[in-house]
User: Fold these one by one.
Assistant:
Number 1:
Amino acid sequence: MMQFTSSYFRQVLLALCVAFALSSCVISRENVIVLERQGSFTAGGTVISTPGTFDSIADGAFSPADQSTAGQTLHGDHAFVFYQIPVDARPLPLVFWHGYGQSMKTWQTTPDGREGFQNIFLRQRYPVYLLDQPRRGQAGRSTEPTTISAATNDQLWFGIFRLGVGSELYPGVQFSPEPAALDQFYRQMTPDTGPLNIELNTKAVSALFDTIGPGILVTHSHSGGMGWLTALKNDNIMAIASYEPGSGFVFPEGEVPEPIPYVRGALRASAVSLEEFRRLTEIPIVIYYGDNIPNQPVENPGQDQWRASLTMAKAWRDVVNRRGGDVTLVHLPEVGLTGNTHFPMSDLNNLAVAELLSNWLKEKGLD
């Protein structure tokens, strides 16, 4: 009779484990994202210094409350950039810029745990660059101080992002009703660590494009207006896709429209020279707005401010296109996508939203 030793059984068990692991890899390989490289860097920024001489003995510890800053520097006001380059990458990367109160998280995993635009477009072989603008998120070191509030304002964000009213979701909204998803949404809000400085932000993102070369800028909300200004600075921006730009529309001098009033405010545009403005006519631009935006003034400020933004965006599109530009404005309900919030890239139907962008990139020869 054949005798089986404990060593033999260990070898059999090991072989079975290896075989199982390999078979699992084969089964799931179609879901794997294969990267050529990934990493992070900073772009732009400033350096300030304090006069004097640094004493590494007397001032070389963090503990003293009265520690001197004499002779020391502070590197801050840069953008923080995380990038991933897939194997067999397309030539033009997508650079994703978040909105107000947000960070690069808005492009990553959705509040309900699905893949965001980061992975969706990696799977389509686009290099992706995700940034935290100066004085936000991982780019938090500011050269100017500020006070960070601990105000209880979750429900304000709930309304501004058009999830619903108060704590009630809009009927048919493309946001998960699961409490855990709402919890994740609230926890992605990100404060500024210094005063908001639009010029500083646009310089940093322009420096990013100086570093990586030609690419496509994808903005959201507050970064929409800063995106136009960055394109005026940098010819490496080959196109812009903007999700619900909320402010910062620039018009040629003499063609700035009247402010558009909304509940508790008014949306104002600004002027640039016609020579500067022409730059915006040289690149294709697409703008997307979601659902639950009224056509007429309403009392709900979470809706009414986006009515003003959509109205201004239409006027801006018309001015750019009259001067030979190529701006497409897509109101998602009009193309069959209903229920979208202020951040369609994180909605339940974000795959369909991404497909619209993919098709536009292909149509414009940017793929």
Number 2:
Amino acid sequence: MYIPDDAIERLWHVCLPYITSIKTMIAHKHYCYKVAVSLDHKIECRVDDSDYEAMRGFIMNSNASHKCISPDGPVLSILIEPQSPWGNKIREILNGRVFVRFEEIMDVGKLGHILPVDHAELGDIDLIPHIFQLMYTITGLEIEASGMLDPRVSRIIDYVGQNLKSDITNEDILNLTHLSFHRTRHLFASETGIPLSRYILWQRLRGTLKTVLETGESLSRVAAEYQFTDLSHFHKAFKNIFGLNPSTFLTECRVVVEDDRDVEESVLNSGDL
């Protein structure tokens, strides 16, 4: 499977991958679609009033109330933007259903190791290709290179990435495209599969988490730097999109959000320099 050079960054345009061992879980729901797969055992899940047991993995619809447990080992979960290309394909797979077991859509015996057996010792950058491979197995879609995007959209993505800690105004965006705001929003959504405002929110949530993970700074201080009014504003946005409070992700989950040091080390080890 072809993975473009900028795939690591683009992964965070549309999803939040994380690894956790879920021994207890409160019922929750979230805006994102959810793909979850056990790494070496089975998952149990309660969705609304229905129980599902002994699953290798599942796909969960948006805003479905659920709680899952995985007492015997880790699970890789991927929360996916519903309006992204992956999200559109998952919508087709769900076909109006709230919940789909992997066993209904594939031969789970052929999945093999989703991540390397020594995944706990590897850096995020080493795990990301395996996440792409899993999503390709489920959806049949490969991630596209950003070089294929309309240059005006690429300029927006670059600008947003450089100004996440600043106020990004409509005028700022229109100066990059020289189009009306309506046409700019339509262009961005058609090229990327995600609305511009949602994209900016994803990147600010991602930037906040990444900075806290890398620096150990307080969540409230970092969230403010990324233009969240206060910690309550950040918690509300995070929980709406991802379903749980950010403290759970920071303390109980391994969030696969690459460390720049991992990227630099990977490049050095590849011999490309």
Number 3:
Amino acid sequence: MAISTRDEGKKVNSDINVTPMVDVMLVLLIIFMVVTPMLNNKVNVELPQATAAVVMEDANKEDSVVVAVTRDGKTYLGGDQVVPDSLGEKISARLENKTDKRVYFRGDQRANYGTVMTAIDGIRAAGVSQLGMLTDKPLM
């Protein structure tokens, strides 16, 4: 009884087959080339051209509504101090007969963020369509 052996197992094929890898890379390249133009999700928007001086002139008008929050947490509507909870009602009363429902807001640089957001929520609750944030001119 003889044992049969195969000679083909003596040689080990150590060559790397790169054809499948090249195929996968080409498929990925094609996918990325097709998908990349679709990733451009920027929206072209024309922003209004305005200067700070024009906005300040509008805010300094006699009938403009200006809300201010000081660094010690006090809220003012025009020159009158108001409770932040009643701010929305008082702004609604001032804007009742106006067609332009624009309010200007001044917030102190060191004012509490929560107080500022409460005042802005009161302004939005009054049905204000435009809220202008006033700042100082930068020192040059």
